[in-house]
Amino acid sequence: MAILEIVKYPDPLLREICEPVGDNFESIKKLVDDLAETMYANDGAGLAAIQVGITKQVFIIDAEIAGHEPTESPMAFIDPEILWLDDEVETSEEGCLSFPGIYVPIERAYRCRVRARDVSGETFEAEGEGLFARAIQHENDHLNGKLLADYVGRIKRKMIERKLAREAKGG
Ligand code: NI
After folding, report:
1. What is the C-alpha separation between 43 and 101, in angstroms, rounded?
2. 60 has which bridge partners?
3. What protein residues have CB closer than 5 angstroms to ion ligand 1?
4. Which of 72, 94, 105, 146 is deepest in the core (most CB within 10 A)?
5. Distance between Cα 71 and ligand 1 center (Å)
């Protein structure tokens, strides 16, 4: 396993549309392990492959947020497809490892259902609510090049860009 470098906004790589994994599963187990180690090292709740520069439809969500025992491995979603979004919405502050120190209030469906494959290639469906549903929607956005900065107005976006530029310089 390896801790990988996280791609930070406004790197244009984060805007790419991720490719399906399809049948190319050989390297996926290692990728998911590396994502897990990188997520924990950065105290994150979820991480998409594109955030470490791999433009594949893969993301992970922390086990506890996914409703599993906290000691379990993060839940992996490969080639996910959101099947249903609840009409009921909730607004809550959201962060992202590609936006260190930034939190943005975002309205999301309170529940959602997703179909994906796990690391062994098995298809599963999961239904989440609250934080889990939010994490699924957030990570799924990454696969389509959509980011926290797209949920704020122009002025707030400029503030975010300035803050991240300052931090990138170490100041
Ligand atoms: Ni994110």
Report:
1. 12
2. 47, 76
3. 96
4. 94
5. 22
Q: How far is the CA of 88 from the centre of ligand 1 (A)?
A: 22
> Per-domain residue ranges for the chain?
12-168
The reported pTM is 0.96
Report how far ligand 1's centroid is from the alpha carbon of 148 (Å).
Answer: 7
Record the tokens describing residue 122, joined without a space: 């098995």
Q: Spell out the residues 6+ positions from residue 135 whose beta carbon is closer than 8 angstroms to its own.
A: 45, 46, 61, 62, 65, 66, 128
Using the mean position of ligand 1's atoms as its centre, give its distance from the Cα of residue 143 in Å.
10
pLDDT tens-place string over residues 107-138: 999 999 999 999 999 999 999 999 999 999 99
Q: Say which CATH architecture domain 12-168 belongs to.
A: Alpha-Beta Complex (3.90)
The catalytic residue positions are: 139
- Read off the tokens for 23: 């049948």
